């Protein structure tokens, strides 16, 4: 566990981004409309955030609620516009009507990204066959992470799956980094770190006052410390308010 773990924080605007970086975030996931669980932000939002911070930004490519691609051409055009504005990292993931990966839509969007790094998001937690999805996506250019809770219901239920998948690291389909998010709580971190998980994603947990308020640099700093030193805070964490489990 000597390698520094990645801490990714959802940012809706530049104020969020500045606070997240101040708290120790390594990377931001940029979205809008959390009522729909995070959609593609306006290009102007990306450029404002890019000007405000100097950490990595991954921009969501998702134009409608749910996990269907809708019109892949619209997603491609959104990706093109963001790339022209300077975006270099992305988040995406599409399922078909049967709950399998919509490989045609994913491949069409990935072709537009032309080698940019990207995360396959929590659509993996809603697929009918996680292993099959990983095998189908194996080798796609730029895929370097899966954002997953191990279960559509969140980390509490998905923890056994996360531990099993972490143990398969390096196998075909399991080379991308596991980034845990979705009902993630501080007390989950030590077991996940011990299993070799090296990336964590928070949204609501970075906003103790709820989604109507900006990211708290102090909340992010607590996560930074626990992610870096999982043994820290076994007593101290009892005094911390539990992070919200919505959208994180």
Automatic annotation (TrEMBL):
Domain of life of the organism encoding this protein: Bacteria
The protein's name: Copper homeostasis protein cutC homolog
Pfam families referenced in this protein's UniProt entry, alphabetically: CutC
Family designation: Belongs to the CutC family.
């Amino acid at each position: 566990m000597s390698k520094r773990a990645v801490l990714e924080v959802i940012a809706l605007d530049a104020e969020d981004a500045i606070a997240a970086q101040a708290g120790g975030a390594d990377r931001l996931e940029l979205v809008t409309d959390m009522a729909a669980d995070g959609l593609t932000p306006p290009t102007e939002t990306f450029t404002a955030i890019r000007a405000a911070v100097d950490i990595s930004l991954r921009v969501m490519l998702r134009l409608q609620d749910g996990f269907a691609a809708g019109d892949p051409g619209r997603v491609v055009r959104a990706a093109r516009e963001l790339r022209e504005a300077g975006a270099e990292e992305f988040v995406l993931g599409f399922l078909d009507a049967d709950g399998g990966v919509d490989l045609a839509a994913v491949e069409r969007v990935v072709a537009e990204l032309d080698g940019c790094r990207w995360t396959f998001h929590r659509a993996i937690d809603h697929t009918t066959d996680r292993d099959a999805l990983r095998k189908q996506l194996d080798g796609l250019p730029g895929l370097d992470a899966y954002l997953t809770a191990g279960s559509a219901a969140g980390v509490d239920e998905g923890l056994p799956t996360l531990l099993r998948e972490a143990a398969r690291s390096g196998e075909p389909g399991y080379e991308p980094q596991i980034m845990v998010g979705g009902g993630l709580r501080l007390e989950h971190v030590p077991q996940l770190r011990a299993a070799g998980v090296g990336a964590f994603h928070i949204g609501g947990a970075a906003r103790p006052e709820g989604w109507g308020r900006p990211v708290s640099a102090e909340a992010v700093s607590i996560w930074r410390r626990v992610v870096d030193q999982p043994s820290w805070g076994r007593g101290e964490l009892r005094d911390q308010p539990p992070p919200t489990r919505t959208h994180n």
